[in-house]
Design goal:
The protein is α/β, with parallel strands linked by helices and 440 residues long. The chain contains ten helices and 20 strands. The chain folds into three domains: 108 residues, ntegrin, alpha v. Chain A, domain 4 (Immunoglobulin-like, Sandwich); 43 residues, no CATH class; 199 residues, von Willebrand factor, type A domain (Rossmann fold, 3-Layer(aba) Sandwich), CATH 3.40.50. Helix content is 32%, strand content 34%. Strands 1, 3, 5, 7, 9 and 10 form a six-stranded mixed sheet that branches. It has a six-stranded mixed sheet with strand order 17-16-13-18-19-20, with helices on both faces. It has a four-stranded antiparallel sheet with strand order 2-4-8-6, with no helix packed on it.
Length: 440
């Protein structure tokens, strides 16, 4: 609580005028003190309306949603009730808005007066791209009608609002880790057994189901032959988000890093939905590791980690060579979301020797070119040179066995993923369809 009073200043001014008038024997100076004296008396009377008794204001906050996708709107409702026994006049209320939130409709403050038991309500809409925002309280100021007295209070009114990264609905992504887990899932395990797609045949063993006998092969070879199908299991998937500030591109008031965060959210949701064990490593100013897990609760933890992630630079993490490999089971699936820097290629080649690696690379060149205010021949020439460098870098990754998704962020992510990571048989049919030869 802070209290501001200007009554002593007015009293001092009146005394100086009176003293000057008597000492100098000037009646006009004494007359000049008269309006100030009247104003002071009125201020003393008005002060009684502010300090007539104990002030008891209680604030209550209500949020339409506590967690919602980025760029959507949340409604914030405030209620301030006068639980004291005296009327509060000239009450000024203003909600303390967390930094980063944008008000899209309504006002965060009002001026009102409240009698005992009365309440004032305030409502407005806010939005943000991503982040966790904590409300602390409401600022209240009580003033008299002459403005000579001002009492400032802070009414506790906590609340928390999270804008999680937006995500796209992804479908039919095929991954090929060298090792899978024992639970049934959607990842090809390269093992014969119960499944959907044909894997091979073998000699009949006692206990095999009759429906799995390949009668054509049995008739041809003269002995019982069992058909095997490829087992489908769950896998360990580790998402690595490149949060190095030097890998980001800022153009047109937008950040390429934010698109990378949204891509990581989309992939996390898909792999969790497929039943895989998913973890997340943010690699930038420091390491932020979300331990792998399954199910809906794990998705909540992954989205919370992506909500709070921030880009930054550190000498220790300038390159990708310090990625802590001990966090990832050997033979598992790694998915790196990064625009890629020149020094990253050799590190990814080394990782490919131990893991199955996918790189989702938001295209920084297309992102920046689309947001330039104007283009000239010099810009076009520079863009072509950088494009050749990037294509060469991506070609080196593909030659090393790394699967690459080159994503232009102004296009839907699902289209880029579909072209690069579609299940092989569907990818062949899509290629045939594009050439006009598919029987769709």
């Amino acid at each position: 609580m802070r209290e501001f009073r200007s009554l002593p200043l007015w009293a001092t001014l009146i005394l100086l005028l009176l003293a000057g008038g008597f000492l100098l024997r000037r009646g006009e100076i004494l007359l000049l003190a008269l309006p100030s004296l009247i104003y002071l008396i009125a201020g003393v009377w008005a002060n009684s309306s502010v300090s007539a008794g104990p002030i008891k204001l209680v604030a209550k906050r209500e949020l339409s949603d506590r967690q919602l996708p980025g760029h959507e709107e949340a409604v914030v409702r405030l209620e301030v009730r006068n639980e004291g026994s005296h009327r509060v006049s000239e009450l000024r209320l203003r909600d303390r808005l967390p930094q980063g939130l944008t008000v899209v409709e309504g006002e965060t403050g009002l001026v009102t007066s409240l009698g005992p038991g009365e309440r004032a309500e305030l409502e407005y809409r806010v939005t943000a791209a991503r982040g966790r925002f904590v409300f602390t309280g409401v600022e209240a100021a009580l003033a008299d009608s002459l403005g000579l007295n001002l009492l400032e209070l802070e009414l506790p009114c906590p609340g928390e609002l999270s804008f999680v990264p937006r995500f796209e609905e992804l479908k039919e992504i095929t991954i090929a880790p060298r090792r899978t887990r024992v639970y049934s899932g959607a990842v090809k395990a390269r093992l014969g057994g119960a499944g959907v797609e044909f894997f091979g045949t073998r000699e009949y063993h006692q206990g095999d189901e009759l429906r799995r006998i390949d009668w054509n092969a049995t008739a041809r070879l003269g002995r019982l032959i069992t058909a095997e199908f490829e087992q489908e299991r769950v896998a360990d998937v580790s998402l690595i988000l490149d949060a190095r500030a030097r890998a980001d591109v800022l153009a047109g008031g937008e950040s390429l890093f934010e698109y990378a965060v949204e891509a990581a959210a989309s992939l996390a949701r898909y792999f969790i939905k497929e039943g895989n064990r998913v973890g997340l490593l943010s690699y930038g100013r420091f390491l932020d590791w979300t331990f792998p897990g399954y199910g809906r609760w794990q998705l909540v933890k992954l989205l919370e980690a992506l909500t709070r992630v921030e880009k930054g630079d550190s000498v220790a993490f300038e390159g990708l060579e310090n990625i802590p490999r001990r966090l990832f089971p050997p033979g598992s699936q790694l998915v790196l979301i990064s625009r890629l820097l020149e020094g990253d290629i050799e590190v990814l080649r080394q990782l490919r020797a131990i893991y199955a690696v996918i790189v989702l690379s938001p295209d920084p060149l297309a992102f920046e070119l689309a947001r330039l205010p104007r283009r000239d021949r010099a810009v076009e020439l520079a863009w072509r040179i950088e494009r050749l460098k990037r294509e060469l870098m991506l070609a080196q990754l593909r030659e090393a066995g790394v699967r690459v998704i080159d994503w232009q962020v102004d296009q839907p992510l699902k289209g880029a993923v579909k072209r690069a990571l579609l299940r092989p048989q569907l990818q062949r049919r899509l290629l045939q369809r594009q050439r006009g030869r598919a029987p769709w």
